[in-house]
Design a protein that fits this description.
Elements (H helix, E strand, L loop, with lengths): L8 H13 L4 H8 L3 H14 L14 H32 L1
């Protein structure tokens, strides 16, 4: 018997958004996301009825769109810091010569 999958609220919201905005057939989208087609419709109905409070549980961390955007911002910040440190190291290395 297999374990029941659980998904984060962000994943569910993003799946519903994709179902509404994508040109893909819901069955194909569901297959790509690894969920059942009828589950997408249930999430959509629940989101329409309950709004932002639709998915209060923590679920599994699936790397939702919000999390990905946050990671991208942090990566950009780290790259900027790296560039500043490289310039500082080059400056001080030149001064030591």
């Amino acid at each position: 018997m297999s374990k029941r999958k659980s998904f984060s609220p962000e994943f569910k919201r993003e799946a519903v958004r994709l179902m509404e905005t994508s040109q893909k057939v819901p069955a194909d989208l569901a297959r790509e996301l690894g969920v059942r087609r009828n589950q997408l419709y249930k999430w959509k109905e629940r989101l329409m009825k309950q709004g932002e409070g639709a998915f209060p549980g923590s679920g599994r961390k699936s790397g939702g769109a919000n999390e990905v955007a946050q990671l991208r911002r942090e990566l950009e910040r780290i790259k900027e810091e790296r560039d500043i440190l490289k310039k500082a190291a080059a400056y001080f290395a030149k001064e030591l010569k």
